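Suppose a colleague, Dr. K., hands you the sequence of a protein chain of 321 amino acids and asks what its three-dimensional shape might be. Before reaching for any lab equipment, you can write down a predicted structure in token form. Begin with the sequence itself:
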Amino acid sequence: MGGKMVDQKFDIVGIGNSIVDVIADINDQYLEEHNIRKGLMSLVDLESVKKISDNLDIKTTVSGGSVANSIVCLAQNEIKTAFIGKVGKDLMGDKFIDGLTKEQVHFANTPQSDEAETGRCMVMVSPDAQRTMSTYLGISQKLNSNDINEEVIKNSHITYLEGYLWDLDDAQVAIKKATECAKANGNKVAFSVSDVFCIERFRDSFQKLVKDDADIVFANEEEAKALFEVDNLDAAIEQMTSLNKIFAVTRGENGAQIILNKDSIIIQPEKIEKLVDTTGAGDIFAAGFLLEYIKNNSLEECGKKGVSLASQIIQKYGARL
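The predicted structure, expressed as tokens, is then:
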């Protein structure tokens, strides 16, 4: 797996947490008995995640993680993709790699073994469609600069990063290595800020990346306000206009807004028949946007495709169209 395919060119490489989503149906009683708070995501250790999975009837496993979701969606649309992440030499690691390979995504790392195992997220779906998640990050959070496949980044037009990476111990150095390699080779950097809590913890570093390295930034309204430390979206947009970057801001039922310098493009929402599950909506919006961007289409077309795919994904389970 992941041999030296130096001559291969990619449209985009994603760098992110490698997490296998393990999905099971449960009833509310199960959550009560195991003291798990419904509808929330909690971080757990290996023992706990194994205990949960041993007790459940597993419906399916999917290679998950925010950037991985976007990358798979792009691969399904005939885009040449690669993914950089860390998995263990274990059954879950094999499942993660197989899941990507099956979708024609090139996994640009080799599984590694230490006491941590491949990351996984137990996704427990209750009868009312609520998802409760117990996540074991495992070896995925040990991504370091040795895991950054520079050959693949050099040969990818876009390197796509997620804010969740910043929580990893050695990630700052790894991220710097990746962005420097992309920029040195004249390639673009796309960045999804991921989550308000991430921004609050690493705001200086995020702002620096946005200012210095990123070409495209994905955020929702709350994240955009947090990033620029303002309390309304207009004030955030005001700051975006001076940065000469593309900002793609998702606005829930209000569609999306794309900002580049003085241009601001409003993307109308699509009609939603039945909201089923908002998981992965941001990931799939980013995929739709990047899909048109890679094809050199207008920012308006990029935004429309993002909104279109996101509105499809929220009408079904999970983060796969």
